[in-house]
Amino acid sequence: MRILIVEDDKEAASYLAKALREAGHVVDHAADGETGYDLAASAPYDVLVVDRMLPRRDGLSLISGLRADGNHTPVLVLSALGQVDDRVTGLRAGGDDYLPKPYAFSELLARVEALGRRPRQQEVETSYTVGDLTLDRLSHTVTRSGQDIPLQPREFRLLEYLMQHAGQVVTRTMLLEHVWEYHFDPQTNVIDVHISRLRAKIDKDFDRPLLHTVRGAGYTIRDSGRAGA
Amino acid sequence: MSEPTTTGRLFRTTAIKLALIYLAALTLASGAVLVYLSQNTATVLRDQVVDTVDAEISGLADQYRIGGIRALVAAVDARSRRPGASLYLVTDFAANQLVGNIEQLDDRVLAGESGELQRVMYTPIGGGARREALVRVFQLSGGFRLLVGRDLQEQQYFRSLLAEAMRFWLFVLAALGLITWVFVSRRVLKRIDAMTATSRRIMSGDLTERLPVEGSGDEFDRLAIGLNAMLTRIEVLMQGLKDVSDNIAHDLKTPLTRMRNRLEEALRGDLAGDSKARAVLETTIEDCDALIRTFNALLRIARVEAGSSDASFGDIDVSALVREVGELYAPVAEDDGGGMELRVADGLTVTGNRELLVQALINLVENALKYARQEAGEGARVELEARMEGGDVLLGVRDHGPGIADADKERVLHRFVRLEASRSAPGSGLGLSLVAAVARLHHGRLELADAEPGLAARLWLPAAGRDGEGRPAGGD
Fold first, then answer.
1. Bridging pattern class, strands A147-148 and A141-144
2. Do A85 and B309 touch (CB under 8 A)?
3. Which residues contact B277 (CB under 8 A, 6 or more apart)?
4. Which of B8, B46, B312, B349 is a good FRET partner for A71, with 20 to 30 A between their CA atoms?
5. Residues B82 and B59 both lie in one domain
6. Which of B104, B131, B157 is the last residue of a domain?
7. Does the beta carbon of A154 lie under 8 angstroms from any beta carbon of chain B?
8. pLDDT tens profile B358-407
9. With an 8 Å Cβ cutoff, is A15 touching chain B?
10. Where in the sequence is the domain holding B245, given as residue range(s)?
11. Domains along chain A with CATH numbers
């Protein structure tokens, strides 16, 4: 993916660029809002990573400027202000995701990749398939090897989100945000418990596990026959 | 709780006391003025009467000196026929009336000392009621007597006029006092009410609000200006505090981010092969994250306490919220060998911030799971309930753990307070502080009670739709 980082903190930016390049992405960097806006407007990027507080042009104004131009490149907003209302204003300005600083790189990477591969408007699939596991969004059914797997509504949403991002790492906070719509740091292993319940239903009676734990990052669903991230 | 009626409040105002005192003082003063006035007027009138009488007498005396009794009688006769004439009477030695306009008079009057001023009752010629008059009697040679006087009816009429005016004046005073009282106290009440409403809004966190100043420079304006100056000062201080915490957040989070980044980089790099180094790096990252979490929690509490989330308030379906949290955490309790029981009434709604309420409830649930497990040695049994009680929505989280001693119940709500028993468990000591702050922001309260055994944490929130204490009506 081609990623533009707009961040004034040089060290943070170079670290981020380096780490993203290591993860196989092409990275450009702008140190202020005005340059960031010019770059984003002139070249096609898959994802923009924009710091909220920038010299010359504030991050939120950069985003709303791009949106006003009809540019819908997904934007991940970074900010040292991690408060409830800050996230809301960040998303309202046209940001697609919001990550408070300091963040774990694994969290940022997972979110950037989720944003970059996000289906464009309208083309939402009606069913997902990973290996022999199929989730039908219309009939709300899950089958594996032709066998029906009954799931609770929340388990269905959990699996749906994982399969929507099949092959990508999904972090615990991402799951909490998208499946439960909660924005907080859980102090307990609450997500792991739900994952292990889901795993018991979709993986336990089958020889090949599909739902994998990615150490220090989160979870991913993929057919283990294929090479993963 | 019930607001007194407007009339009730009108009667309890300082204005009515002031109005009454004012009225009494004014009545007294005007009474004194009137008495002084009427007395003075009486004196003036009397002097006037005396002067008139004396002038008449000197005129008649001239007549008598020149023309004797005959001329006197003729002059008196002529004068007593004039309209508005004074009183005259001339008698001979046998007290027979020779001429005059007095029908009847007390005999003793004529026997009085010559030249003495007397107040007498007489009957005017042609009969009628007895009237009062001021007269002088002179003994003339030959046993004749001359009486000259002035009727006092006019004076009495004037006096009754004054009394009438006084009564009217008192009535006007009372009416004016009443009207003033009603107007003043209504005006005062209105301004006081406006001030009270504003101060409530300020208390609920909107420090930019100011008390209304009308610009008339009256005592209320001066009070408002003074209080506004104080509020500005407080706002500056609060802003300073907020800036400091924001700056701390920013300035400490930046190096923390870098630190975490370098650790992550190291973890991905060459050191990753060394399992010892890897373990050190991983625990350092964990500590780093704990530090960051503490910062975030502190900042969040500060924001909540400053009341800055008020703008994001909406109607929240608490029943659904509690069920969702229960659903999220029930598996955690079960996997741990405990369990979670939900008793949630339908249709509970509060006005608030969903995220903060979720966070508060989750803090309570996580506390229950964490601390009740520790002691019992097995999983925690947690009961989560939501219902109406006494017009408020009650969210209760009850566990069967060791509970909290009465002496510590107040203390654990303070920041960074961790009880000895829980020191070994992970945590920052900020969880309950945040819950208490969220409760305050929602005009509710947090209560820690004994469930015997266990702790019953109860979060009381005013139900939506009810105009809760302190929340201005009509606010969004």
1. antiparallel
2. yes
3. B266, B271
4. B312
5. yes
6. B157
7. yes
8. 888 988 888 888 877 655 557 778 888 998 888 888 888 888 877 777 77
9. yes
10. 219-304
11. 2-116 (3.40.50.2300), 127-221 (1.10.10.10)
